[in-house]
Amino acid sequence: QVQLVESVGGLVQAGGSLRLSCAASGRTFSTVPMGWFRQAPGKEREFVATIWSSGAAFYADSVRGRFTIFRGNTENTVYLQMNGLKPEDAAVYYCNTNPPVRAYWGQGTQVTVSS
Length: 115
Description:
Low-confidence stretches: none
Strand content: over 45%
Largest sheet: 6 strands, mixed
Number of helices: 0
């Protein structure tokens, strides 16, 4: 059974940093693109960042230059380093393959940014 489990998010002040992790199990994810997505209240889930097996990454315009996606030393871990957080970054964050697989969506993790 495939599971993607995001680490606990948290509450940070604007300008602060937070690192999220995603632990995947049930299959090998090191050879497929992985992504982070987020959903703010009342909004559609949106793309945040993706990383290919090569290590190349791509970011949404809203986070480029502030967020970094990278893979861990274990083949099934993906991280999202978030710096310079803004109130508009507050959302529930999810990891998934990219393109996402519906069955892989987990519970997500809440990130709250205070102004």
